[in-house]
Amino acid sequence: MLLAAGGTAGHVEPALATADALAAAGFRPVVLGTGSGLEARLVPARGYALVTVPRVPLPRRPSVDLLTLPVRLRGALRAAVSILDREKPCAVVGFGGYAAVPAYLAARRRRVPIVVHEANARAGIANRLGARLTRDVAVANLDCGLPHARLVGIPLRPELATLDRVAGRAAARAAFGLPADGPVLWVTGGSQGARSINAAVVAAAGTLDAAGVSVLHHAGASNATQVAAQVAAYPRHVVVPYVEQMTDAYAAADVALCRAGAMTCAEQAAVGLPAAYVPLPIGNGEQRLNARPTVEAGGGLLVDDADLDAAWIEAQLLPVLADPGRIAAMGSAARRTAPADAAQALVAMVVAAVDRMGT
To answer: Fewer CB within 10 A of the end CB, N or C, for the chain?
Structure first.
């Protein structure tokens, strides 16, 4: 099976979770990506073969890049066709990103079944194209705008889908140097951090400390030193530049304050971690839509980036952190919004597509 994904963790992580499920079912997954995205590091680290095509961004508005797009896309398509001819996959499963478009076009040319997976609440350009070439479209949100959409959720790594946060809490907190007792707030703005979230939490650090709240603060590699200096007076405020094992962060925490990327929302819902979601204030508004099912179910809070400050944290988030019963209820509500066995459901869709082509 050829899995096309590249660029961001929101594309690569669901592809790798699907690769795990395909491998368990007896298939040989090969990941098609680029040489410069996260896939170049994440795919080999998970033990899967990575094959690459040239990176061809799709311009969203008229530009010089749009004029040269046909030439660049033809080169990526030739590379993708060559890979299909060599690997001879049963199907191409696309997750969006730079590698998906040439993969979809190559599969169409070679009459290989195509399955599209869209993790976001609003589909990207690549998957909007892919969905025109197949009726096998798996989504995490039925309102994403793709035809033939079937709700399966977002495939997650088995260790996330089966995480026992209570059993792992003591070890996870010890690993980060956090107190064993009391509530812990997990703060993250994504892999690079988020300045607005960092600033609000730094401003609220004294209030959180006085209330007995510990903070595990993923500030981002470029911000960690500055943030650590700003909160140095509070020993319960632990600042990290990056977290390699997200399961440890989820086990250590009681509540999260974070952006609302598709993977963040899916993972935290799956492990039952309540969150205050701060959608990215730029883009097409998809992050607000990603968080909406969990928030509407009672598993999270929603705050605009412009409204997030120390006063909001004190008035809205601190009461949650101080109420174990509310935390438990919100965690249960969040978990109910996460479709079970998304990876297995996607694999079943892929196998069915292959069987139909075979008949």
So the answer is: C
